[in-house]
Write a structure and sequence with these properties.
284 residues, mainly alpha, 13 helices, 1% strand, globular
Length: 284
């Protein structure tokens, strides 16, 4: 018995983690799944059928497009910034400054970020007023900042630093000896990236892009603060289903919408895990 206790002792450190995981992930997910199949205290598929409604499908498409656009832009720009950082000294001031800034900016969102963009590019924003006075150009236009285009720009703000954080370890895994070996065999820079670095980094890049997609797909606070009317994306449609004073009794529809989001995020994160496993083979 004492031998078994000694073997199980290291696993006891995982108890707080599994407790946290159960309370804040498993139980809420279970409540969403059960609530999606309940209507007026009895089992029903009406909420699942409602997911095929034109409004829901259009909103889902908007969420996918918004997440994909911000993820692609963030992945490309963030990947270039990460490459610029990794070419410098590992312990240099530039790398420490950029990684520290990215760690802060990747978590800078919600009402604060929405206010920052409104104060900069809103109707009376600093840049908007400067454009009117100096160039005679109205950058605010027809209020694009409060629509999908504005959300794409705002989401890209925190997608770029997140890409730097998640993609930098993969770039660090590229060994200098591989480049030297390729050059000694007569390979050009293009051939090195085409046949060696590109194929090795592609799974990590695609996996990081999927992570950015999931991050944008589940974001709520920034969109809620920026978009005051309408529900252009799924998180805002869920909010309206829960708080609407015009159409009551839609709480279970909100559960179904949340289940829809869970399915999409699970698919994306499964693909991310598969790509990450492939990348880890050469990072060891």
């Amino acid at each position: 018995m004492s031998r078994r206790v000694r073997r199980l002792a290291p696993a006891l450190g995982l108890v707080p983690f599994f407790g946290y995981l159960t309370i804040f992930l498993l139980i809420p997910t279970g409540a969403v799944v059960v609530g999606a199949f309940v209507e007026q205290d009895r089992a029903s598929l009406s909420n699942i059928r409602a997911l095929g409604d034109e409004v829901v499908l259009r909103t889902l498409w908007h969420s996918v497009v918004l997440s994909a656009e911000s993820a692609l832009v963030g992945a490309v720009l963030g990947g270039l910034l990460a490459y610029a950082v990794v070419t410098g000294r590992p312990d240099g001031l530039l790398r420490r400054s950029v990684t520290s800034a990215c760690g802060v900016l990747a978590q800078f969102g919600g009402v604060t970020l929405a206010f920052a963009f409104i104060a900069t590019l809103g109707f009376s924003g600093v840049v908007t007023e400067a454009g009117r006075d100096l160039l005679g150009i109205d950058l605010f236009g027809s209020g694009w900042l409060f629509g999908l285009k504005g959300l794409t720009l705002v989401y890209t703000y925190f997608q770029i630093p997140l890409m730097v954080i998640v993609f930098l370890p993969s770039l660090d895994g590229m060994r200098v000896q591989w480049r030297e070996a390729a050059e000694s065999l007569g390979a050009s820079t293009w051939q090195f990236w085409r046949y060696i670095a590109g194929p090795l980094l592609l799974p990590a890049f695609l996996g990081s892009t999927l992570l950015l997609f999931a991050n944008a797909f589940a974001a709520y606070a920034t969109a809620a603060a920026l978009v005051s009317q309408g529900s252009p994306i799924l998180p805002l449609l869920i909010r309206n289903a829960l708080t609407s004073e015009i159409v009551l009794g839609q709480s279970h529809l909100a559960f179904a919408l949340a289940l829809d989001m869970i399915v999409v995020v699970v698919i994306v994160m499964t693909l991310y895990a598969l790509l990450l496993r492939r990348t880890s083979r050469w990072l060891r």
